[in-house]
């Protein structure tokens, strides 16, 4: 069984994401063109096959088969500093999240003037922080239930179909097959110098879940169009090594939020176009991480998060027949409400992005995207379950730089 899980994990590793720099642990890294324009208008622009990740209805705008292959490298900088409980100092972690490489692939196949089908592989969710070194501060009492390794990584394999109702309206729907893996460890000496290691949580599990997406587009005319989509995400269940408070369980359950977005694209003239997106994510659905099995269900962690919006705007400039330039700005609202967490730091974030496309010929292009993500300095207050400790205070900040490249081909 372990060999099978290891093989499955290795096979899927090329499609896994790490620490996200979007609200909660949502990933915005589906394409180089999207990064270059801060994902503004991405659900309706349809300039390459990656639109499949945002809105299956937009496949109706393709008259030729389309392929896109992309790679995103994230240089992540997550800092957690000045963690303390009153006069007791636990220290800081200067690099709590590692850099990641995130690939993606999409293919769209028009069947006739009315129907098109497509497949894609990408990621919508992922997070990873390791603050276990705070357990080694030498403090007399340590909240080991708060300090540890947390990682949730997902890959989405999508199959979609679109139908053109008439020259203006198109609809689409798709199925998401989601592979995910979770690692959660909380262990260390609660009483400093005692030599007694307490293992509160030890989870290394993976599994599959089923979700879906529906979408629609409205083409006002050749130069103006609108799009919308709604992605339904499952409550994810993973099996493997699941230990909580010294007991073994069968599964860990992680609820994922639903995503709704609307987008617009307007070509002002043969040189300039503007585009925008508003996206709502139901992070209030991510309420509890639980474990189940032969023993009664237990809540490992509660997150009383709030729903969030992101808003992005951008512009594209056709420099000449071979080059298109783009830029964008996105404001991503944080999800933390009354209960915050050191293990998944969050804040409002601003994205500043630029990108370009080089058209090799009428069939192929190479796309580039560069994004700078800047978070806010946030004070985190999290209560430990260890009675003698109570509330622990720390300060977090999450920044990143996204480097992306993509190859697109029209058959």
SSE diagram, text form:
Layout: H1 2-12, H2 32-36, E1 66-85, E2 88-93, E3 100-110, E4 115-122, E5 126-130, E6 149-164, E7 169-188, E8 198-221, E9 224-232, E10 235-244, E11 247-255, E12 259-267, E13 272-281, E14 288-292, E15 298-302, E16 308-320, E17 323-332, E18 349-359, E19 364-375, E20 378-383, E21 391-410
Antiparallel strand pairs: 1-2, 1-3, 1-21, 3-4, 4-6, 5-6, 6-7, 7-8, 8-9, 8-10, 9-12, 10-11, 11-14, 12-13, 13-16, 14-15, 16-17, 17-18, 18-19, 19-21, 20-21
Family: Belongs to the OmpP1/FadL family.
Subcellular location: Cell outer membrane
Main location: membrane
Describe the structure.
The chain is mainly β and 411 residues long. The chain has a single domain (2-410), classed as Porin. The protein is built from 2 helices and 21 strands. It has helices at 2-12, 32-36, and strands at residues 66-85, 88-93, 100-110, 115-122, 126-130, 149-164, 169-188, 198-221, 224-232, 235-244, 247-255, 259-267, 272-281, 288-292, 298-302, 308-320, 323-332, 349-359, 364-375, 378-383, 391-410. The protein has a 14-stranded antiparallel barrel. The longest helix is centred in the first third of the chain and has 11 residues, at 2-12. The protein is elongated, with a radius of gyration of 22 Å. The relative contact order is 0.19. Mean pLDDT is 86; it is low at 1-22.
